[in-house]
Amino acid sequence: MDRRNFFQKAVVSGVGLSSGLLASCNTSKSTTYADKQFHINRGYHQIPKLRLSMDRIVKETVGLRPFRPSGPRIETEKLGNKTIVHNYGHGGSGWSLSWGTGNMARKLVMATATDRKVALLGCGTVGIATARLLQESGYEVTIYTKDVPPNVTSNLATGTWSPASRVCDPAVAKPEFKGIWEDATMFSFKRFQFLLGMNDIACWVEEYNVQNEAPQQRSEHSAGGEVYDIPGLLPERMQLTRKEHPFAADYVTRRSNLMFNIPTYLHHHLQDFLAFGGKVKIHEIKKLEDIDALPEQVVVNCMGLGAKPVFNDEELTPVSGQLSCLIPQSDLQYKLSTKGANFIARKDGIYLGSNGIVGNWDTTPSKEQTEKVVSILQNLMETMRG
Ligand SMILES: Cc1cc2nc3c(=O)[nH]c(=O)nc-3n(C[C@H](O)[C@H](O)[C@H](O)COP(=O)(O)OP(=O)(O)OC[C@H]3O[C@@H](n4cnc5c(N)ncnc54)[C@H](O)[C@@H]3O)c2cc1C
């Protein structure tokens, strides 16, 4: 089977969140000298408390993850004289997989197109990454989009490396999808290493998981629906003893993870896209005829959830996620997850969240959800030593 057919076969497969194993929740007791040293010398007081009250919340958002049970759609479709390359439906992993599936879309363009001019629909994290990769291969790219950042779903994400979060439903996705996911994950992971040190658009942070009960195989406190894992890609989760952490909890782990400072990241890449001669046109695609009317013969579709009505994709479903943004705290630089709540410190604020409601199109923030998350985290902070 050639690579293209392989992708095409895989994208019509499907997968189920509900039975996913949280492989990435594995912990290690074989603490290495270097890692122990890091905290014993400095003590747990180096984990500052969150300044948390309702009046410190300055922004609340609800974003809609573009979820497809069979996994993201990455395939070529003919539309009259046009060649459409689809690259949408990344669920809760679009930030993480953007470069990897962008690379797959680029290969599909290279396999079909002789024309160097490419139209790309959509200006979220997936569209921008795909556009940059096409430019790197010598294509002249024009982005046609309804909206640009900050008015895109990608701006409403948490911004953590979570390539398996709600990426598919394992009960529906075809077995081949796992290999595609691994390829995309590996490509993205390598790419992100080249983005380190550039005004922190991408960086490493410490991530704590704080629980009162022993972790199960499947865990609701995770980023949500994590289906696959590549062992060894991230540093292992270290289990911490009571002496090594300040939380009033029995099961605490720490690991390093990648995160993305969303506003500066998107700005950086959009500026790069323009610097390499790319064009952005505000242009809404309402029907297939609008695509037919574009001057380019090759069209890459990165419209996220916006692809649903245009391509009549019945699989594509929103999974809403609410975030509350606290005023940034310069001393607090970590991520924490616990049952029912998590937070991550970004440059532009500390983001509390996030839930996931399948099939919910409502983007109105719920006060009840905010109060629930705030109350869980306030309780955790109050009972913290130090
Ligand atoms: C609360 C929340 C937390 C998340 N956390 C993470 C995380 O930590 N890590 C992670 O990897 N992922 C995360 N995600 C998932 C991630 O945000 C998405 O998978 C990703 O943003 C999808 O990117 P996209 O570019 O495909 O879509 P979008 O950002 O939605 O971009 C789509 C683009 O297409 C354009 N468009 C849409 N319709 C049309 C049309 N008809 N005509 C023209 N243009 C159109 C839009 O204007 C936009 O420019 C999270 C999502 C949410 C909601």
Describe the overall structure.
The chain has one domain (3-382). The protein is of the alpha/beta class and 386 residues long. Strand 5 (117-121), helix 4 and strand 6 (140-145) form a beta-alpha-beta unit. It is elongated. It starts with a helix and ends with a helix. Helix 3 packs across helix 4 (125-136), helix 3 (94-112) packs across helix 5 (176-193) and helix 4 packs parallel to helix 6 (262-275). The strands form two sheets. Strands 1, 2, 7, 8, 9, 12, 13, 14, 15 and 16 form a ten-stranded mixed β-sheet that branches. Strands 3-4-11-5-6-10 form a six-stranded mixed β-sheet. The protein is built from nine helices and 16 strands. It has helices spanning 3-11, 33-40, 94-112, 125-136, 176-193, 262-275, 288-292, 307-311, 367-382, and strands at residues 27-28, 57-67, 73-79, 82-88, 117-121, 140-145, 202-211, 237-240, 251-260, 279-282, 298-301, 317-326, 334-338, 341-346, 349-353, 357-358. It binds flavin-adenine dinucleotide. Flavin-adenine dinucleotide binds at residues 63, 65-66, 88, 90-96, 121-127, 145-147, 152-154, 156-160, 162, 284-285, 302-306, 310, 321, 323, 353-354.
